[in-house]
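pasting for the record
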Amino acid sequence: MEPSGTQETCRRRAPDAAFFGRIAFGAVGAVVLLCALHFGLPQLRILTKMLLPLPVALTYILFGPMVVLAATGGACLLIWGFVSLQEALAFAAGGALLGLILGEHALRGRSAFHTIAIGTLAVSAITLIALQMLAPGSIVPGDEAAFNGLFAGNLDANSPNVLEQMKSSVGEETADKAVHWLMLLLPSLVVIGELLYTIIGFVGFRGLVKRIFGVATYQATSEGEFRLWHAPDKLVFGLIGVGAFLLLATGLPFRIALNCMVVLGCVYVIQGFAVALFFAGRFISSRSFQWIVLLIILLALRLLFFLMAAAVGFLDVFMDFRKVRARNAKEEQQSAE
């Protein structure tokens, strides 16, 4: 079969998009490096504060609105008193844009799941290393005193003591339990946060390539709409294995298994949300109204909604509610013929 004009255009424009991505990746790398130096070597803080606006400005020029969306994460850190305004913007831009540029992998024929997974792991590693540098022992081996210093905002004299505020509002015993579980789950919470950054960046990169380079189709969209998405089937064996290990492990192995369980559960929450969106489309024609209805349900049920979504996503592996696998098998059979 001869390649279509659109496929030929995509193949011809891909090197240009990849070159563009590498330029922006250099800017992001500079942001991350300067942030690492800023936190790791206090003697260089005057120099890093002078140099940091340059790569941040470059990323703003290249990606504009995407950085503004990503900066909301930095604003949350700023509100909690972990970082200054400049550091929050730099980390938000660096984290989101690193995930965004990893969309370049999709131009080489990688699947959307593979690209987002690689981006999430890379950005999460950078963030966890930065947190370990900020408060040694907070991530590895998971020292509660080190984590308390990070959580309380004691690293910055101008920051409010969040831990003390929490104790005064909910009680000392409840606050101590909350901090203990936050310490245990900190790695998985970081991974989930960076997963959202990477998804935003991936979608933004895809739209950017289409807009700038005129690429009408994109390799990563071959899997169809989000409402038909499903995690790789083999991932369920990892979830079952981690769950079994969680019942037997103690200490550091328990913490590792617990965080793996939370991250894998988040993947099935996304799949469950896709299933919900698929069936919402059966009864509600307007896509905007579908999202509004699901948002209202989310706000009403909160944690229960996420637990239900995870259960639906997990059951979808075995029951195939949307008949996605049957449809894919039929398409593969037709293409083979």
